[in-house]
Amino acid sequence: MFIRLNILFFHSTVIYHLLSLLSERPPHLLSLLSERPPMAAANHSPSSPYSCGKDSGPVIPTTSLVTFLERIQETAFQTYERSKFDHKDFIDLSLKFDLSTTVKAFDEISKTENGSVSTKDFEEFIGKWFKSAGEDLVYVEPMDFETEPHGFLPKVENPEVRAWALEVHGLWKKLSREVSSSVHDHPELHTLLPLPVPGMIPGSRFREVYYWDSYWVIRGLLASKMHETAKAIVTNLISLLDTYGYVLNGARAYYTNRSQPPLLSAMVYEIYNRTGDVDLVKKALPALLKEYQFWNSEIHTMIIHDAENCNHSLNRYYAMWNKPRPEASAIDKRFASKFLNVNEKQKFYRELASTAESGWDFSTRWMRNPSEFTSLSTTTILPVDLNAFILRMELDIAFFAKIVGEDAIAEDFLTASHTRKKAFNSVFWNENMGQWVDYWLNYGAEPKEPQTWEAQNQNQNVFASNFVPLWIDLFNSDTPLVEKVTRSLQSSGLLCAAGIATSLTNSGHQWDFPNGWAPIQHMIVEGLWRSASIEARKVARDIAERWIRANYVAYKKTGTMHEKYNVEKCGEYGAGGIYRPQVSVGRMEWC
Known about the structure:
EC number: 3.2.1.28
Distance between the termini: 25 Å
GO molecular function: alpha,alpha-trehalase activity
Helix content: 40-55%
InterPro entries: 6-hairpin_glycosidase_sf, 6hp_glycosidase-like_sf, Glyco_hydro_37, Glyco_hydro_37_CS
Enzyme class: hydrolase
Pfam families: Trehalase
């Protein structure tokens, strides 16, 4: 199995950053804003069945090839033992011949009543009619890779740690890919989407560009002085945005029905902050305005009427899909088998896809009943981190507009950021907890109908996402606020021997306890470190040291880095989820 090298980069990217972050402080976007947020006060949400109402949301149709590959995946599921089966391997296959001929040949294979075929017949068919998953990508030498770049992590003096960082840096060469000419010339034979320039892939079962992972990949590339490769990633994401109207979850035909946490503006900001490339800003600004419009479209926005008689427009995840996710179709169908009618199944499938859009797939955070996976209700939640990312987008767009002389746009987005900041205080902030928390919507509510804010609809369970707003300069610049949130983090139960746990619930899902993920460590550590609070900066350093130590110990034991770690035990990688734990992924590279 092709290793997910970019997992290494996800964590190693974060490693790069944590090795250097504690000695650097990038300029704030806060020069655009100065006022301090007032804080509001605030218990948990009502439950609701899928049986209420009909699923009438939008659906983006998929391709005939994806539909056929779902049949192949189902046959593989019936043919192989579960332990030897990765559903994604079969949806990523490309055709050697045209689709109709391949479908005809498949229909002629002898099958049992449950749809399985003999392993021999199935493997012969796959070998004859398909190219292996991953063959539609071609290795390309990174244009700006150097074995030891000048000025690489200058503050890291320990020779052993520096040698480790350089080993991690060397993995960029293994992850560089471009889309094959066949994808451009015969897109109907592939689920991989054409992209204009080479870039970095995560690796292993993740053979395509992913959206929010790319932010941490870019941070790692910038640490490695690979500025042109970082810009190329943004170019590819803008290409997807221009084609589809939003940045896809990933560059596959089966991902066209959803996005992922919107961090494109943050990517552009980091590159600009390092390079001063005004042309990149000029190219990106129209695309970012389009993305902002997507996230503020009717399906993604809900209105909350607060105690002070103000309406707040806030955002949610909402995938444009109500069928099994093609990349996990066989498994999704089995989960949905408990539902009795088509409408219930469609609602559940939309919740699955919307949870995947969040990047937190899966976690009890999204479940009405934490012990029941099929109670996923992501579309009825206003997630605090998603709204923090959109607040960051508003600030970034204002910053970029000012750079290129679009003063009216800058003013509009500064106003929008002020408005959203007030919403954070009214809707998400919980004074007793000292955290920002997700808000549960009343089930069945329509986007155009304001809902009255209720304290009981705040999700008072502790998740690492409750602390993500610290990453935004509007919040980390408020020292009293930061110190209150820091004390809350310290007493939350999330801080463990090897880093920050994702939640306090050991559910077996990969975005729950005891797993820790690189993006969470990075955003919280960077937010604490950017503050003026001595205590917050001490906590940031302590978390960074724990995380770096855990990554290093695991690397020495296993020879690689891992997608997630067990934060209870230093050097032990994480588990859980519907696929096998992955190693060496790009977003790690910068943490």
